[in-house]
Amino acid sequence: MLRDYKPLAGSSQRRGFPKRNVIVMALFLVLLAIGTYQLQGKSNRDANVSIRGGRCNKIDPLAPSFDASIEKILEDSDFKSAAIERLSKAIQIPTEIQDVNPMPADNLEYYAKFFEFHAYLEKSFPLVHKHLSVEKVNEVGLVYSWAGKDDSLKPVLFMAHQDVVPVNRATVSQWDHPPFSGYYDSESDTLWGRGTADCKNLLIAELAAVELLLEDGYEPVRSVVLSFGFDEESSGVLGAKYLGKFLHERYGDDGLYAIVDEGGPVVELEENVYIATPITGEKGYVDSEITIHGVGGHSSVPPDHTTIGVAAALISTMESRPFDSTIGSENPLYGLLTCAAEHSNKLPSAFKSAILNSKDDPKEKQKLVNFISQDARFKDLIKTSQAADIINGGVKANALPEVTSFLVNHRIELQSSVNATLERDLAIVKEIAHHYGYGVKYEEQLLAPATELGYIELRGSRKLEPAPISPTHGPVWDVFAGTIQNVFEKGVFIGDDEKELYVTTALFSGNTDTKYYWPLTKNIYRFFPMIGPSYLLKTVHSVNEHIPASAHLSAIAFIYEYIVNTSENV
Ligand SMILES: *[C@@H]1O[C@H](CO)[C@@H](O)[C@H](O)[C@H]1NC(C)=O
Ligand SMILES: *[C@@H]1O[C@H](CO)[C@@H](O)[C@H](O)[C@H]1NC(C)=O
Ligand SMILES: *[C@@H]1O[C@H](CO)[C@@H](O)[C@H](O)[C@H]1NC(C)=O
Ligand SMILES: [Zn+2]
């Protein structure tokens, strides 16, 4: 998967670093961006690496006292067939969402598939619909509330989204099984279709777990809330944005115990070694929109630099000065690497040493940064990225372009901010404006008056700060991670003592619907309770999306146990 890997020429620090084949697995993991710094415990396997950094160790499994159905969920074949069938039918309702969608109240017809989906949920989960209150937010968003016995406790919230990425009609023939067939292949024990992984597995599992708990006569102490958006794949502006506000009005700042949403799965590090990768951080976002306002005229008498030339100078200056790369121990990626270093038998010691000692040793840290920076696929996880994505200017061969504008998209590094990113772009705008004799405008402010040549304007749009980093220690994390440890090690892996699981954390450069829920709690864990097969990344949002049937069962088991454990540990 690491095609074209080549160390950059001219760097001396790279000597002694692993070559491509031996680091493939580590970098695959970096892609999934995992990390953790857990309790002390397991000794490092490579005796020659002295460790002064964080540890990735096992967590005590936390088994709930009430676990009436866990065996049934994971072992019973009748339960399995029924569960797979129920998920398959959910896949068969094509809740595709486009990039731009109407306000539901203005066009209910547009959301017909979603209403069909609601009716399907009502039919499939009768106890949920009998015992929980169901509210519709912005017509299509769903909130289910299950009141706990102790209303002084903060509720636990489970999220998922009803919508799926549209299937490009031109690619339908490339699917091994039609995208909305919900086909179950018993031979390979896999379930096929758009939305199997992203994200109906989770949505249906959440409802299935609650349904089963109700069937088992369980009464939660802590309230349980489910919240399902319907346009996550187009930024959640009609779904999660309204749901987040609705829940915030109800529960207030820090009013929830924890949130579980879609995210990183459990992945196989190497044979018999698995790591769970809940995402505990997300990069920020801003688009810098830069416009060069110049003067027009006949192109037979041009200035030395047209507005297009000035735009070119700006872009090439920005590109020649990438943002700084850095990796601190707070970065979920650092924990990922720690896990890989401590539990992989394949990583070379020089690499392990750079990872494990980078916390206290600036030289080792620099080595680690250099190492990650070598690879185009991973370098952006440790710095603010910049990509000039749109440019407009000029309309005619004999007319000077009065206006040239372009857009640079940034994904902001965890420790940085929208402000720092725009500050840096503004500094370059000022420098180039000064050099070429232009004025400067930032947002509504004229910072340097327009000259006879014109002025350069910078605006930031679609601003989003990096997500607050979710805690990876303390009682809420312990219950969450302990439940994962229990479900997989004592449940999914039962009878297979060779298999080991470590719970880590992960970082993504995109955002889930949780971006509208930040004020509700700092304990936001984006996690798919399933073993992510190697084809997962290639098929999500693409052709041939499918999941192992076991992924659905482990998801139900996790939600079931987590609900009980959040009630028992108050
Ligand atoms: C560890 O160090 C010893 C002594 O320097 C060496 O003989 C041995 O090969 C090393 N082991 C590994 C796994 O690198
Ligand atoms: C889960 O429940 C068991 C049994 O009551 C309890 O011992 C354990 O502490 C709970 N786990 C968590 C994570 O709260
Ligand atoms: C960044 O924040 C500072 C302090 O609030 C403010 O003065 C400055 O204008 C901001 N910079 C940008 C580029 O928005
Ligand atoms: Zn999703």
TrEMBL record:
Q: Catalytic positions?
A: 163, 232
Reading the lineage from the top rank, the first entry is Eukaryota
| Cofactor entry | Zn(2+)
Transmembrane region positions?
21-39
List this protein's GO terms for biological process: proteolysis involved in protein catabolic process
Instruction: List the PANTHER family hit by this protein, alphabetically.
Output: N-FATTY-ACYL-AMINO ACID SYNTHASE/HYDROLASE PM20D1, N-FATTY-ACYL-AMINO ACID SYNTHASE_HYDROLASE PM20D1
Annotated protein name in UniProt: LAMI_0G08262g1_1
Q: Which organism is it from?
A: Lachancea mirantina
